[in-house]
Amino acid sequence: xxxxxxxxxxxxxxxxxxxxxxxxxxxxxxxxxxxxxxxxxxxxxxxxxxxxxxxxxxxxxxxxxxxxxxxxxxxxxxxxxxxxxxxxxxxxxxxxxxxxxxxxxxxxxxxxxxxxxxxxxxxxxxxxxxxxxxxxxxxxxxxxxxxxxxxx
Length: 152
Hints:
The chain is α+β, with helices and mostly antiparallel strands and about 150 residues long. It contains four helices and seven strands, in the order βααβββαβαββ. It has helices at about 15-25, 30-40, 85-95, 110-120, and strands at about 5-10, 45-50, 55-60, 65-75, 100-110, 125-130, 140-145. A hairpin with a 3-residue loop joins strand 3 (about 55-60) and strand 4. It starts with a strand and ends in a 6-residue tail after the last strand. The mean pLDDT is about 90.
């Protein structure tokens, strides 16, 4: 991946993020939801850029001893190039640096490609929340990754 950079998300990133969101999800977050997550002092929100263009993002929230991965997406033209893995790596680093032991997420039961990605970086399925998604009544697969402590 040429010149991929990751940085903290800013309000100026929102139009590009919102466009990727709309292209990625059946029931996308609205702008208000993104702004609420962006301004939460416990959040870690990362934007990926390739040659200056926003190509992906990840929003997460620090909780008591874990991080909740709220939203992750990569522009359809940039998928399967390792961008999501890099974003997840940043979230794992954030979690470790804040003394968190776990990262967890919900993913649509039908989203096999996302579940494969999460499994490949150490998430395991721990539960199914039935009829979690209000738009379709689809179940959510709850996945958790236990973080290993690293030196430094």
